[in-house]
Design goal:
Helix content: 40-55%
Shape: flat
Distance between the termini: 95 Å
Oligomer: single chain
Structural class: alpha+beta
């Protein structure tokens, strides 16, 4: 039916009046209608048009400053990142507000009151955030279940197998290791390669591996200076001695060359080219049995003459001047001997050929305690895998940007290390050859440690003393780079004569330390220490004593130059000792502290 214009106007007034009264009874003003659209944009709340999956599907609540001002004070604090000191009280107030709001929930179903709807969303969101904060403080979640907190991480460096007199730190340390052990995996027996024994380093920790007491992180630690070694973080739950340790697991892959040598010496496979190296070893040669037919498994392994002449020639490490077998004395070999069986001899010879580092570590910690703090602790081995102290070291090269006084302290430690290697023990002298930044690390306490010991030999002082009694004449010429090469070559050719001269030539370790680590002089960076001919010279990363204070620069330059380029026999040792004393004074007086 048709409605007359007059009646239409009456109906319009009735509907308008009813709507106005409804709004007044609901507590919503017309002004709220005008700001509802703006509030919706400010909050960026999901709507039926922009909400593909509802709340929680990538939607974010971005609250404008104006919107925050419309909120109660406690909600403003929650969204500004300040929950206050009374988190529980704030949350209780929010819960009360939410309960009061839910009493009028029916009116939000009709689409009216957009501002109140948005505020309700904000209150619920803030309540959830503050509840999470309360959960962390109370130790329980909102359902009443206990929240497991991760163990506190300590900054204590692992020393002496993890033993410590501080019971509080020990408990925390053990919890930390147990936590790591839960996430680490059991080492597969195929990785250890115990089946190759006695062509291996030993079997002292094989049972610990197989029982699952030693675990590892399958992700290897990057190692730049030795491609034949893969290092892994690990844990060892030592139930026998009641200790829990974080360890470093090192796996060596250079045994293939020794396996091939054994197969060639004990079979007719010498010139066949149709078979690869692995095929020769796996299909036609069992190295674990073949080695027992060779001198590598005989008592010759513990004889000085055989070790110096034969074992030293079989080492598969390039760019090394010295090694353990080259000057191994009879007294040293008697100490390294672990048994009289042929398998014991084979394992000893394998370690000397492939990884003398294991023998050096064990010997130093057991028989040269004066030097043990410069090296990581050694725990044992299984197959071609060894276990040693956890290497939580920072590479020495990373300290080049550090402050002047920090670098001075490291330089003093390096000079003291060289002096201790030469004089600390009354029975033994430790001599290193090629050494780089990769060979040294720094503990969390700032102490220098030697990580790679492949180019290290141990000289018996009784042999040195015999040489000094016969030869009293000191060198008449300075000993620099060429002198070092000549001495290393002489040790290879006639070790019985030249090893006793280590007292004269061990001072070249000062030269290596100054050139590699301390000096930043351009004149000392161009020396081609151990770089093969025909290859590009590796750029020197810089010296620890760079950017020295002006008042020290001239004297430091003179001492460092004399340390690298000896001009008169004996002057290098004098310059090195003077340099160390001067740096000690710098540490005590904090000269150059402005260069921090």
């Amino acid at each position: 039916m048709t409605i007359r214009p007059r009646r239409r106007f009456v109906y319009f007034l009735i509907l308008t009046t009813a709507a106005f009264l409804s709004l007044q009874l609901s507590g919503i003003s017309v002004h709220d209608f005008e700001n509802a659209g703006q509030m919706q944009e400010n909050l960026a709340l999901p709507t039926s048009r922009n909400r593909p999956g509802g709340v929680g599907h990538g939607q974010s609540y971005q609250i404008s400053r104006n919107t925050q001002n419309d909120l109660p004070l406690n909600l403003r604090h929650a969204f500004s990142g300040h929950s206050g000191n009374n988190v529980e009280n704030i949350n209780r107030e929010i819960i009360v507000q939410n309960e009061n709001t839910h009493t009028n929930h029916d009116r939000y179903k009709d689409g009216f009151g957009a501002e109140e709807t948005n505020k309700l969303h904000l209150r619920n969101l803030a309540s959830s955030k503050l509840q999470d904060s309360i959960d962390q403080h109370s130790g329980q979640d909102r359902n009443g279940f206990a929240i497991r907190q991760p163990p506190a991480v300590t900054n204590r460096t692992i020393k002496d197998g993890g033993n410590t007199t501080d019971k509080t730190n020990k408990v925390t340390y053990e919890e930390e290791v147990y936590h790591l052990a839960d996430s680490y995996q059991i080492v597969p027996p195929a990785v250890l390669q115990e089946e190759n024994c006695p062509v291996c380093f030993g079997t002292s920790l094989c049972d610990e591996f197989y029982e699952g007491n030693i675990k590892w992180d399958q992700q290897p630690i990057p190692v730049e200076h030795n491609k034949n070694v893969q290092s892994y973080n690990g844990t060892w739950i030592d139930e026998v001695q009641g200790r829990v340790l974080a360890v470093t697991i090192k796996q060596f892959s250079n045994h293939r060359m020794l396996d091939n040598y054994i197969c060639q010496k004990t079979s007719s496979i010498t010139t066949e080219k149709q078979l690869t190296l692995d095929q020769k070893i796996k299909k036609q040669c069992d190295v674990s049995s073949k080695v027992l037919m060779m001198g590598l498994a005989s008592s010759n392994v513990t004889q000085q003459k055989y070790v110096r002449s034969e074992i030293g020639k079989l080492q598969y490490r390039q760019n090394t001047l010295f090694s353990l077998p080259k000057c191994a004395s009879q007294r040293l070999l008697d100490v390294l001997r672990t048994g009289d069986h042929s398998s014991d001899m084979a394992m000893l010879s394998t370690a000397m050929i492939l990884n003398p580092q294991t023998l050096v570590l064990k010997f130093i910690h057991d028989h040269i305690p004066e030097l043990s703090h410069y090296f990581p602790s050694y725990f044992g081995e299984c197959g071609h895998t060894i276990i040693q102290e956890h290497e939580s070291y920072k590479p020495l090269k990373k300290f080049l940007p550090e402050s002047w006084l920090v670098r001075v302290d490291l330089a003093v430690q390096i000079l003291q290390m060289v002096e201790d290697f030469r004089t600390a023990s009354p029975d033994w002298m430790v001599v290193f050859g090629n050494i780089t930044y990769e060979n040294l690390g720094v503990t969390k306490e700032g102490r220098i440690k030697m990580i790679d010991l492949q180019d290290v030999m141990i000289v018996d002082r009784s042999e040195i003393n015999q040489t000094l009694q016969v030869t009293t004449q000191k060198p008449i010429e300075p000993c620099n780079e060429e002198c070092l090469y000549d001495y290393a070559s002489s040790v290879d050719k006639d070790p019985d004569t030249e090893c006793g001269k280590a007292e004269f030539y061990s001072q070249v370790m000062y030269m290596l330390a100054c050139q590699r680590f301390l000096s930043d002089l351009e004149s000392t960076k161009v020396i081609r220490f151990f770089d093969p001919k025909g290859m590009d010279y590796a750029a020197h990363p810089g010296g620890l004593l760079r950017d020295s204070p002006y008042e020290l620069d001239l004297r430091l330059t003179e001492l460092l130059y004399e340390c690298v380029f000896e001009t008169t026999p004996g002057r290098r040792q004098i310059a090195s000792k003077t340099l160390k004393k001067m740096l000690h004074i710098v540490k005590r007086s904090k000269i150059g502290s402005a260069y921090w």
